[in-house]
Design a protein that fits this description.
- The complex is a heterodimer of chains A (432) and B (349).
- With 432 residues, chain A is mainly α.
- Chain A is built from 16 helices and seven strands.
- In chain A, strands 1-3-2 form a three-stranded mixed β-sheet. A two-stranded antiparallel ribbon of chain A has the order 4-7.
- In chain A, helix 3 runs parallel beside helix 7 and helix 3 crosses helix 11.
- Chain B starts with a helix and ends in a 14-residue tail after the last helix.
- Classes of the chains: A mainly alpha (432), B mainly alpha (349).
């Protein structure tokens, strides 16, 4: 099979009826303003605020939680391309996150020294910015590693996709789930592999720590901007992550209007019809996998720098499910919905639930540990959303139409008056 | 007769060279596994035999859980992700009945009665929960796109896990329970056979035969097969589709309940997230045998149990067991998506 990289960017310009200033530059401006507000508030206003306000604010919306939510949003946008745009259910998306993270662990940390005794003297530095005193191993510039991780993940997506993408929905979900389970196991057990267990490729459950800092390049000439963004420069990290999120949104929105995006939508709606109309199924599906995986790789590098390391235990199935929930609850296929869904859910997962629980406890005098009920809340939200608002918070128009109508063939086969729920049809069946 | 058009369409299409190569590669892989198994069997027959015994015990459990998956998938094409967690709840429930209520900690007349009672209770409870889940969560979604019931199942799985996490269930940490047999067993030659393995297989096989009987010989089974073929046509033929699906969910839940008790009696620990892993293994078993096929699920369960047991003892070790299971799954998907006993389906337009 062909394993080509995504097809070339759209050559044919799609018809764009709305070309007003607001529709062309509205969202980038809005995003930019929001990012600047968040940044300047946390960078300049908050440190000068009075202590009570500061602690209260930091309890509700700490900068680490904001950064993490932005990273989750990058992942969710990647999964949105696979699930929301192309309709390929992927339950193992965490694998790409893990690959991206371990690419960062390999190329941006002293860890490469420990892979094998023969590499003990290894010291490679390509515009890298190691933490003080940790300049052995491989250190490649953060921005280069982003590109490398995106490429590696895209390749991994193609490798996973190539043999399996001819499967249909459930089976595909299962195979991706399999990959999503195998890779964490490889990460966990990768401490002694190869002949006689000589190779240590992932450092086992200890994980890889000491990920490099993010260099700011020419921006360090601006007064106040540090040369490298270390672990505690959270606000500057936010700028980096927000920039990458903006890039992800831009790519998502633009690619969707082009030929590739329309082909994705076509195979999501009806694979058979799309292939009859000349859409090369395998190539289009593979490109969806590759693009989605590349987002995952970028997010993985971000996450590794956010945490300062990669830990094998972080890459489990619940991450894939959380991401899927972000995509589905936000509104499958809608970039805005997915972004908002990801930010909100990530915040609820990190600090929101506990804080809301505290408010509830203070107001009612009860003593409920809300964090211990997150399984129930999360599960109930998933079930209730599927039952009552299947199209998500901010639905994509097309998805909404499809999801709210029963399948056309089914109505026809039942006769027009049997359009209701299964109970109605069953009741009618017994009446006859 | 002028049946040329029909006859022509029934001519088997010529196999592409690529398809031939794929199936040849698949056969080669199977042959390699068989050769490896034989080699190990000849090299150390005693260890091999004890691994087979342990694997058969696990395989019986996998088969029981896999039957629940395969029946639900066979009838409404839903991967019931909550099935494994239902099994977990049944495990804990049977533990509560056996240990906390009846204090079963050794083999005896009373203990057998208590375990039998616990078996009935956990089967009934799991069936009830599964039916309730179908009624509340899945029935409304029967006409929805496939992603919707799948996510509902995941949500239900989380809710079950939450329930298993409560302090009166297992709590957040793994919990030890005393069991009827403990580690007792007997020896055949040099091979040690635990009593639990015998018990598991002795309870599993009749249940499996019962299932096969229900599906293939009874009216309800006929209705199930009809609904699986085409719900609308079945409804037009006077079959109560909802009741049939409810019945399938009840059967699957009952099997999960039985598996829960047997798991507790043979392993003796419970954990709130144990259902996820075992559920995945069981689903792989169902797919391995050919999903929707009862005998296939049983065969797949036993094969997978024995294979993972061999892996634990002789190949890569226990820490890689999920890798082995999923590698089997992926290879199967690539080479024979319809499973060992399944028949290939063509796409309906």
């Amino acid at each position: 099979m062909s394993t080509t990289t995504p097809a070339a960017p759209p050559v044919v310009k799609p018809p764009a009826p709305k070309t007003s200033f607001a529709s062309r530059f509205g969202w980038p401006l809005g995003f930019l303003i929001l990012a600047i507000v968040v940044f300047s508030f946390n960078q300049w206003i908050l440190p000068d605020a009075n202590g009570e306000f500061r602690t209260g604010y930091n309890n509700w919306l700490p900068m680490t939680a904001v950064n993490e939510a932005v990273i989750w949003a990058i992942f969710a946008l990647g999964l949105n391309i696979v699930v929301g745009y192309s309709g390929l259910l992927d339950l193992g998306y965490v694998a790409f996150w893990g690959i991206g993270g371990y690419v960062a662990g390999w190329l941006m940390a002293p860890f490469a020294n420990q892979v094998t005794p023969a590499w003990a003297d290894l010291s490679i530095n390509i515009f890298g910015h190691p933490l003080p005193g940790q300049d052995r191993g491989i250190h490649i510039n953060f921005w280069l590693v982003l590109i490398i991780a995106a490429l590696v993940c895209a390749l991994a997506g193609v490798i996973i996709g190539a043999p399996t993408l001819r499967l249909k929905s459930d089976y595909l979900a299962l195979v991706t789930l399999g990959f999503g389970e195998i890779l964490p196991e490889v990460f966990r057990n990768g401490e002694r592999v190869g002949p006689d267990g000589k190779w240590n490729i992932t450092n086992g459950t200890k994980g890889i720590t000491g990920i490099d800092q993010i260099p700011t390049g020419p921006f360090q000439l601006i007064p106040g901007v540090p040369a490298t963004i270390g672990t505690f420069d959270l606000t500057f990290k936010f700028i980096v992550f927000a920039l990458l999120l903006a890039l992800a949104m831009f790519v998502s929105l633009r690619i969707r209007e082009g030929r590739l995006g329309r082909a994705w939508l076509a195979i999501r709606e009806d694979e058979l019809a799309a292939s009859m109309m000349g859409v090369p199924l395998m190539r289009i599906k593979l490109s969806a996998y590759a693009v989605g995986a590349a987002f995952g790789g970028i997010g993985g590098v971000c996450y590794a720098t956010h945490v300062g390391g990669v830990l094998a235990d972080r890459f489990n199935f619940s991450v894939s499910i959380t991401l899927l929930a972000m995509v589905v609850l936000g509104g499958m296929g809608n970039v805005w919905g997915v972004t908002v869904g990801a930010l909100v859910l990530a915040w609820i997962n990190s600090t929101g639930l506990a804080q809301l629980g505290n408010v509830w406890n203070d107001a009612t005098g009860s003593n409920v540990n809300f964090a211990s009920h997150n399984f129930l809340i999360f599960g109930a939200v998933l079930v209730l959303f599927m039952l009552f608002r299947r199209e998500g918070l901010i639905p994509e128009t097309r998805t909404k139409q499809v999801l709210q109508e029963p399948e056309r063939g089914e109505i026809e086969s039942l006769g027009a008056e049997m359009e209701g729920t299964a109970e109605d049809t069953a009741a009618e069946g017994t009446k006859k | 007769m002028t049946q040329t058009a029909i006859a022509a369409s029934e001519v088997k299409p010529r196999r592409l060279p690529r398809e031939t190569a794929v199936s040849a590669l698949g056969l080669l892989l199977v042959a390699a596994v068989v050769v490896w198994v034989l080699y190990e069997a000849i090299k150390s027959p005693q260890e091999f035999a004890s691994l087979i015994v342990a694997g058969a015990g696990n395989g019986a459990l996998y088969a029981l859980i896999a039957l629940g998956y395969t029946m639900v998938y066979g009838i409404i094409e839903l991967i019931n992700f909550s099935h494994g967690d239902l099994f977990m709840l049944a495990t804990v429930l049977s533990g509560i009945v056996c240990v906390s209520v009846f204090n079963v900690d050794s083999f005896g007349f009373g203990a057998v009665g208590a375990v039998a009672l616990a078996l009935l209770i956990s089967m009934a409870a799991a069936a009830l929960v599964n039916v309730a889940a179908e009624r509340v969560a899945y029935r409304r979604l029967r006409r929805a796109p496939k992603l919707a019931p799948l996510i509902t199942a995941v949500g239900l799985s989380f809710m079950y896990q939450w329930f298993g996490q409560r302090q009166f269930m297992t709590g957040s940490a793994p919990k030890q329970w005393s069991t009827m047999f403990g580690d007792d067993g007997f020896n055949i030659g040099d091979v040690r056979v635990p009593y639990t393995t015998v018990t598991v297989i002795a309870i599993t096989i009749p249940l499996l035969l019962l299932m096969v009987y229900i599906v293939q010989r009874t009216r309800a089974g006929k209705a199930m097969r009809a609904v699986a073929q085409d719900q609308d046509a079945a409804r037009l033929m006077g079959i109560d589709v909802d009741r049939t699906i409810t019945f399938v969910f009840a059967l699957g839940g009952g099997l999960a309940g039985a598996a829960g008790l047997l798991y507790l009696q043979s392993v003796g620990t419970s954990n709130y997230n144990l259902g996820f892993r075992l559920g995945l293994i069981a689903f792989t078993a169902a797919v391995l045998g050919g999903i929707g096929n009862l005998q296939g699920a049983v065969l797949g369960g036993f094969l997978l149990g024995i294979l993972s047991s061999l892996n634990d003892g002789m190949l890569l070790g226990q820490q890689w067991s999920m890798t082995v299971v999923f590698t089997v799954l992926i290879l199967l998907m690539v080479f024979k998506p319809e499973g060992i006993l399944g028949s290939p389906t063509t796409e309906k337009v």
